[in-house]
Write a structure and sequence with these properties.
By secondary structure, this protein is α+β, with helices and mostly antiparallel strands. Helices cover about 55% and strands about 15% of the residues.
Length: about 475
């Protein structure tokens, strides 16, 4: 079962959104903790400031009352000197979140702020910060003393209020980031959609192309990173078009060329059926076998050409191949045929390493040598010689040669010289196709033997 293809647009959107979410979560956690810590520092500073401000007034008031008591001045307030006095609550819009207790030098509580607990929020000699629990309420308490015999103040703040206020302030800082995150996710989706739109249009234009449409791929709108993909696709489509053209041409020409041998086969079969004696029948059957061999050769050549047309490789990626070995193998294969035809096959091979496909080089040389043997009068020579930092493969014969005006046409598919009834006309076309695949060139000229000289020049390794 084919896996569902992934979406570039969706993956970019989700990855960017996830990255933004992770960044927001980390920054929000850091900001939240920093805001809570800063709020706690501010609350502690408020406790300290309140303690200093209230203690200065309260210590002076307590000292005044004690001096008046020693002088014998008594008032209603003096009668309350030993009692815990809760100061009156003053109505105002701001809610108080701190309470305090003021104690005399002997430890007795003389003043309490509205809502302060009855029990002391600390020891008489306590100084600094502490956490005190009174019933179900926990307090963060700062204690300050006005000298060894002076008054002491405990300023406290309920931990619940403290935590709630610090969290509220931290959340007020974090929540705008959440809104910005949502805006960023939407923005990322829109930006990714806009950026990938050329890719979508490009894919639609490719999908709309017909197999035989000659229009080029328009990849100008693609981003710079995807332009090589568009160029490679255009080259691929060009190769596909070329393969289709070759296939259609080959199919049409093969159908035309097969028509004649098939008609001849039918005619010979009819002759064999109507034959009245054994000699006539045997002659018809021999002609039939000859026609079958010719049709078989044609089909084999057509299939080889189709396989080469569909094939493609980078010459630079091919393994080093010794041409001498290819020449020796071809000579062993075709020497019996040359002997039957009375042709001397001479091979002069020296070590010559080129980058090539062994199978393809064998097809190239076999067709050149076979063509030369069929046309030669008595001699065919195969040689290898150095050429421009590489090597050239030469096949010469002493046959009729190739006229200058036919030098290019002999490589056309299904082309046979006038008066020739041998082969399918694909041998030299196969030679040229193999040479093209190797980046080599094939030329034909007049040989010193008097016939045709075919030269296959292979590129130098640095030029492949």
């Amino acid at each position: 079962m084919r896996a569902r293809p992934w979406s570039l647009r969706g993956r970019l959107t989700w990855l960017l959104a996830a990255s933004a979410l992770v960044a927001w979560a980390i920054s929000s956690a850091w900001l939240y903790r920093s805001a809570v810590a800063e709020a706690n520092r501010l609350f502690d500073a408020a406790l300290i400031e309140t303690a200093h401000a209230v203690l200065a007034v309260a210590d002076r008031e307590i000292s005044k009352r004690e001096r008046d008591g020693r002088k014998g001045h008594h008032s209603d307030d003096d009668n309350n000197g030993d009692r815990d006095i809760e100061l009156p609550r003053i109505d105002h819009a701001h809610e108080e979140h701190m309470v305090y207790q003021v104690r005399r030098g002997d430890g007795a509580i003389v003043y309490r702020s509205p809502g302060a607990p009855m029990a002391p929020l600390g020891a008489p000699t306590a100084v600094g910060f502490a956490e005190v629990r009174d019933g179900d309420v926990s307090y963060r308490v700062f204690s300050l003393r006005a000298g060894p015999q002076g008054a002491t103040i405990h300023v406290g703040q309920p931990m619940a209020d403290r935590l709630r206020l610090s969290r509220d302030s931290a959340l007020r800082l974090v929540l705008p980031g959440a809104v910005l995150l949502l805006v960023l996710v939407v923005g990322v989706g829109l930006v990714v959609r806009r950026v990938t739109q050329p890719v979508v249009r490009f894919s639609r234009s490719i999908d709309a192309l017909e197999p035989d449409q000659a229009a080029n791929v328009a990849y100008d709108e693609l981003p710079r990173e995807l332009a090589p993909v568009g160029l490679a696709l255009e080259r691929l489509l060009e190769r596909v078009r070329a393969a289709l053209r070759h296939e259609r041409t080959l199919t049409a020409d093969a159908a035309h060329e097969l028509r004649t041998p098939l008609a001849a086969l039918r005619a010979q079969a009819q002759v064999a059926l109507r034959a009245t004696d054994a000699d006539e029948r045997n002659a018809a059957l021999r002609a039939l076998m000859t026609g079958v061999d010719r049709a078989t050769g044609l089909v084999s050549a057509v299939l080889t050409m189709a396989r080469l047309d569909a094939r493609g490789f980078d010459p630079a990626s091919l393994a080093p191949t010794d041409l001498a070995l290819v020449v020796e193998a071809t000579a062993r294969e075709l020497a019996p045929i040359a002997k039957v035809r009375g042709v001397t096959l001479v091979c002069t091979a020296v070590p010559a390493v080129v980058r090539g496909d062994t199978e393809g080089l064998v097809i190239l040389l076999r067709n050149l040598v076979d063509n030369a043997i069929r046309l030669a009068r008595s001699r065919v020579e195969v040689t290898i010689e150095p050429e421009s930092g590489s090597f050239a493969l030469l096949v010469a014969d002493d046959g009729p040669g190739v006229a200058p005006e036919m030098a290019q046409r002999v490589f056309d598919r299904f082309f046979r010289s006038q008066g020739s009834d041998h082969g399918a006309g694909l041998g030299l076309a196969l030679v040229q196709r193999v040479a093209e695949l190797h980046g080599a060139t094939v030329t034909v000229a007049r040989a010193a033997l008097g016939g045709a000289l075919f030269r296959v020049s292979f590129p130098a390794p640095g030029a492949v």
